[in-house]
Amino acid sequence: MRRRSLLLTGIAWGIARTALAAPVPVLHRDFVLVIDPGHGGSNHGCSSGLLQVEEKHLTLRIAQAVEALVHAKVPGVRVVLTRTRDEGVPLSERIAAANEAQADLFVSVHVNASPKSDQSGYETFVLDLESSKREVARTARRDHARGGSALNAEGDAALMIRELALRANFNKATRVAHAIQQSMKRQFPSRQDRGVRQGAFDVLRGLEMPGVLTEVGFLDHAGEGPWLVQPETLQVIAESICDGVLAFYKEHVHLG
Ligand SMILES: [Zn+2]
Questions:
Q1: Residue 149 C-alpha to ligand 1 middle, in angstroms?
Q2: DSSP code of 97?
Q3: How far is the CA of 108 from the centre of ligand 1 (A)?
Q4: Cβ–Cβ under 8 Å, residues 59 and 203
Q5: 11-51 pLDDT, tens per residue?
Q6: Which CATH architecture has domain 27-128+170-252?
Q7: Which of 48, 84, 136, 228 has fewest C-beta within 10 Å?
Q8: How do residues 59-70 score in pLDDT, each as one tens digit?
Q9: Who's near 13: CB < 8 A, 6+ residues apart?
């Protein structure tokens, strides 16, 4: 009986505490966005012989436009660009920069090309969940082998937590990817929506936060390429990417 009343007191106290508690901000610090302009330096990315424009220049222009838009629309945001000029940055450094910044979201910007120059449209990728889970398991086994011990219960628990985090980031990234695609569809109703897809992109591997890679259009397509390089087009594409960031922000950071 005494135990029961103690329990009830505990429950009542818990309810009272919950009722009195003020809303708690989801983040007690700035919202950190990392924008990754694909390629750079001697890594030119794709190109169009006719247009003499390279992917690395377009991705930087779009990333800088996204940065300006996000600063204007998202309060308390810190934006980190993995490169701010035409220089080569290894993928591992881009990932490390995002992890060190404790970013909340990572967006890699790319422009596409196809073998026969006959493809067009926009698509956004998230990291393939199954292959990234396999890689986490492989890394855990390798670490244990190095340490001279077999996987034990503690190792299993750590692995499970890592997998849960991967899945949570995958789900968040998928929602951001859909938000970008939906905004592109609104902006460009006549273009082909190639959808949200999973891919094994190295630049998304090892991120400790949700990450997406958006391919905004095909530079080598006879119709889409010349349109894609127009400054007005790049600006509208940047707005769509910003819409994806805003969707994430509203869902995970903003309370009011
Ligand atoms: Zn690319």
A1: 41
A2: H
A3: 9
A4: no
A5: 444 444 444 555 445 555 789 999 999 999 999 999 987 77
A6: 3-Layer(aba) Sandwich (3.40)
A7: 84
A8: 999 999 999 999
A9: none
